[in-house]
Structures are given as structure tokens and as C-alpha cells.
Inverse folding.
């Protein structure tokens, strides 16, 4: 079964392979990088081309999430994303240390979307956002490709068969561990962000004077 999957990757046309690698991060980023590293190790296409395509896919899949945060300041449909658990806590971290927060989010599944939305909500400079996003994506991709090819140099063809399986199992185990550890202590999403730390986005500094803040105040007055 594993061999069949590797053969299927190797037999794909170059254009279908590149499209699959580019679109993969829009579906699941970690799985897409594992798929790309596997294709590279199998020799389905030149490594530098595969690396570039998956890198661009990661940037494309995350660049637009910033604008969900920006739109959330004035548009109710987008504000629903900003009100999701974890975004307000990510906002606190983004305002204090943008580089460190985005670097951490890249390597911690479950925190990326809240962090990227928070970057837009608090108007982090978009150029700086893309720069940090590119830097963290490059490190992430290089880490996987380096690991796959390093093991492949030692284990030979067997690495092509077992490295993607090992990577998926380890990733799944890590996510399950974080999910269990979090739900055992807190309610809510699988993130390091607790219910106690979350707070309404309109109450946060930087939201003053927007139409949604005023609407929120009116709603509170109505309750009184």
C-alpha cells in the first residue's frame, strides 16, 4: 500500500504534482509539507522546484488570513472569526512580541489561524507580517526536507517508504497529546489559550471607534 502511494506520486505528471503541492497547504499545511518532502525524496521532480512550490503554497494559504482580522474590525461577517476562542489571547501576544508569536504559531498546530487573524485585527504591518510568515515557512519546509533527505542518505530507498508514515504518526501523536493535555485542564479549542484568558475582541485596545464597537456598546446598554 505504501509502495503504491509512492509509485502514484512518482507517476504523476509534473503539472499535476506541482498543482497538488501548491494547493495542499490550503487544505492542511503539515500534511502538504510531508507530501512535498516525500515527492522530493522519491525524485518525482527536482527538489528545489518542489521546495519553492510548497513554500509559495504556504505563503498563499496564510497571507489572506491576515485580512480576516482587518475586515473583522468593521464587518460583522468577519468579526465572527475574530470572536473565535483563542484569537483574543493571540492578539495579546501579537501586540507584545510579533516575531516570537508568529514563529511559535508556525510550529504549534492549532494556533496558526488565531494568530494570523489577530495580526490583521491589530493592524500589524502587512509587509512585516509577510516577511515573518515567509521566514517561518522557509524554516519549517527546510526542516522537513532536511530531515527526509538526511535519513534517506543513510537508509536509502527504505526511507522513501517509511519516512512519510513516521512523520504522519509523530504529527498525529503530537496533536492527540496536546488535545488530551488541553481538554483535561480546560474547555474549548485545542490551543494553549484558556477560557479564562479569552475576552471579547471589542473590549481590546485598538478597536476603539469602529462601528462594531459602538454596536457592542448599544447591545450592552439594551441588556441593562
Amino acid at each position: 500500500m505504501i509502495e503504491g502511494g509512492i509509485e502514484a506520486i512518482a507517476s504523476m505528471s509534473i503539472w499535476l504534482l506541482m498543482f497538488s503541492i501548491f494547493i495542499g497547504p490550503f487544505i492542511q499545511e503539515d500534511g502538504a509539507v510531508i507530501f512535498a518532502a516525500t515527492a522530493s525524496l522519491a525524485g518525482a521532480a527536482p527538489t528545489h522546484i518542489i521546495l519553492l512550490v510548497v513554500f509559495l503554497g504556504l505563503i498563499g494559504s496564510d497571507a489572506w488570513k491576515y485580512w480576516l482580522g482587518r475586515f473583522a474590525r468593521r464587518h460583522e461577517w468577519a468579526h465572527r472569526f475574530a470572536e473565535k476562542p483563542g484569537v483574543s489571547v493571540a492578539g495579546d501576544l501579537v501586540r507584545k512580541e510579533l516575531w516570537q508569536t508568529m514563529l511559535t504559531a508556525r510550529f504549534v498546530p492549532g494556533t496558526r489561524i488565531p494568530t494570523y487573524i489577530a495580526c490583521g485585527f491589530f493592524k500589524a504591518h502587512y509587509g512585516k507580517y509577510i516577511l515573518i510568515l515567509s521566514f517561518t515557512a522557509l524554516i519549517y519546509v527546510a526542516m522537513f526536507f532536511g530531515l527526509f533527505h538526511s535519513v534517506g542518505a543513510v537508509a536509502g530507498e527504505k526511507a522513501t517508504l517509511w519516512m512519510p508514515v513516521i512523520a504522519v504518526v509523530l504529527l498525529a501523536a503530537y496533536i492527540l497529546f496536546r488535545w488530551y493535555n488541553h481538554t483535561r485542564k480546560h474547555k474549548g479549542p485545542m490551543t494553549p489559550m484558556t477560557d479564562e484568558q479569552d475576552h471579547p475582541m471589542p473590549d481590546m485596545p485598538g478597536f476603539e471607534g469602529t462601528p462594531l464597537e459602538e454596536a457592542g456598546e448599544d447591545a450592552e446598554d439594551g441588556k441593562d
